Each structure stands twice: as structure tokens, then as C-alpha cells.
Amino acid sequence: MPHFRGCSGEPNRLLRAYHSGDSDEVDWILRRLQQSTSGELLAMGVSLGGNALARWAGLQQRAAAELVKGAAVICAPLDLVAGGVNLGQGLNRWIYTPIFMRTLVPKALAKWQQSPDLFDRERLQRARTLHDFDDVFTAPVHGFRDADDYWSRASAKPLLKQVAVPLLLLNARNDPFVPAHSLPRPDEVSASVQLWQPPHGGHVGFASGAWPAHVQAMPLAVTEWLEQWL
């Protein structure tokens, strides 16, 4: 699914960005795709986009089947609170968080140039963690009270019992961004949801085969799962 406007290098001209709970954007793009094709649709979301897709499926319930025959979500942080806390601790804070911040902060500053009243620029420049960033930018720009409110309300996990379209949730249990203890259990999802939680795979890695290995096994397996719903 192509969404999260602003990630392609072309800025979003609206006074907003993207966030992991943006189910409205998912709905918009799926409806546009439906209008432009006579075939049946399958949807796949990865990482933050996967959470948005799973949240959309939970909110839409049976209406989701009007747009897609099935959906797959890969390595999504379905519990944004647990994922956010995890990224703010230990090696994650010193290795991965700075990488994210180097791309997020310039995009946010570009938004500030559009509208200086949108958020506190000085606070943004002091941000060192994703919680700091979401607190000063993502939350206020998209109508959330603060980072904690955003993480709580935007998480797909509480909505998984409402999903009524075939949905695959694939998460490696050694994903450095998504702690294993936060992954959904069978009793936390509807009968339409299939959980696949292999012990290894990292964050959208799933390397297999002899050295130097390859990363084709996961896309092939997910595609095969989706094809059964056509």
C-alpha cells in the first residue's frame, strides 16, 4: 500500500504529516484504488503502515470486506506504547532512535516553515527521543493531547477483536523495535486474524538460506497466504 504522504521526498502540502494510526489515509487510498481497477484488492502494510492498516481493519469491521479480500501486516508495532518505550531504552535509544530523528526532525522543521504556529520549534530541536518528537510534533499536529495519548489511541492492538476480514499479522519475536511481550495473543484477536510469530526475523528481515542469505522467503510466504483469498 502506498501511503504516508511525505515519505517519498515530496512534501505534503497540507499542514499535517503522517502517523501510525492514520486509518483515514488507509481508507482513502484503498477507495481510490478500488475506483481505478476492476479487480479484487489485497492490502499489505509494513511496520508503522502495518499498524495503520490493522487499525483500519478493526475500525471498519465487516465494511473492510467491501474494499479488500484480505490483508497482511508485517512487523507492525501494534502496541505503540510498548514499542515507543522499547525504542527509548538501552541500545535502541543510542543506535536506532538517532537514525529516525535525523529524518523526522528536518521534515517537521519544513512543516514549521509552512506554519510557524503549528508547534514549538525550540522544543522540537531539543527532542532526543521518539517520545519527545511525538509529544511536540506528531501529537499536537494530528489532534492528540500528547505523545502518550497518541500512542494509546493510535495502537491497533485493542481493535484486533473487531477485525472481520482475513488478516495475517506477522511479527518476529526478536524484532528490536517490537518487544515480544507486546505481541497479540490468540485470545486478543478475532477468528479472522491469523498470528504468525516466528522466533527470528528481526524487523522486516527474515533472512534465510546459505550465506550471504536472501530475503525472499517472507515476501513469497505472505503473498502465498494472501492469494488464497482471491
UniProtKB/TrEMBL annotation:
One example of the protein's molecular function in GO is: short-chain carboxylesterase activity
| SUPFAM superfamilies recorded | alpha/beta-Hydrolases
Q: Where is the AB hydrolase-1 domain?
A: 2-208
Please give the InterPro entries that the UniProt record associates with this protein.
Answer: AB_hydrolase_1, AB_hydrolase_4_sf, AB_hydrolase_fold, ABHD4
- Tell me its family: Belongs to the AB hydrolase superfamily. AB hydrolase 4 family.
Q: Which PANTHER family match?
A: ABHYDROLASE DOMAIN-CONTAINING PROTEIN (PTHR10794), ESTERASE YHET-RELATED (PTHR10794:SF94)
Q: What is this protein called?
A: AB hydrolase-1 domain-containing protein
